[in-house]
Design a protein that fits this description.
Layout lengths: L11 H14 L5 H16 L2 H4 L8 H10 L8 H14 L6 H18 L13 H13 L6
Helix pairs in contact: 1-2, 2-4, 2-5, 5-6
């Protein structure tokens, strides 16, 4: 699903979040929808509503954890999933279990990516993927060596 809010209006992200969350709960989502929902649930937690346009009336952390585990967590074979998960954990790990556990998981993912995708993902990989793509393309452009 490609999503781009009209004229930069982030208020529509709430509608997208609700739609993707509904698909997830009914197991009627694509891989890309699940990645987008993983990002939105994390972004919902890590950033304030005036940046995201997402309501603060729900706890996004259980959903993030469920999606993370469904993809296989740090043992996933999906390198895009591992890349975005590592970046999310690196920027701000959700308060799920102990912080030490998440630091260990983030380090396992980083080592795996250094081995299997040392060049990282170029910004163009994330083009045309809406807010999700804009966010990760920005990090791909502005970051130093991947997984450094």
């Amino acid at each position: 699903m490609v999503y781009r809010p009209p004229d930069g209006d982030r208020t529509d992200l709430e509608d997208l979040y609700v739609e993707l969350e509904g698909r997830w709960s009914k197991s009627v989502q694509s891989r890309d929808d699940a990645l987008h929902l993983l990002f939105l649930s994390w972004w919902h937690w890590v950033e304030p509503p005036f940046l995201t346009g997402l309501n603060q009336d729900r706890d996004p952390i259980p959903l993030w954890k469920e999606i993370f585990e469904t993809f296989g967590s740090e043992n996933s074979d999906d390198l895009e999933f591992l890349h975005i998960s590592w970046l999310m954990l690196h920027i701000g790990a959700p308060p799920l279990d102990s912080e030490e556990d998440w630091l260990v998981i983030a380090e396992k993912i980083r080592q795996r990516l250094r081995r299997d995708k040392p060049e990282g993902f170029p910004p163009t990989f994330f083009e045309c993927l809406g807010e999700y793509g804009d966010y990760f393309a920005h990090h791909a452009r502005s970051a130093g060596p991947p997984y450094g």
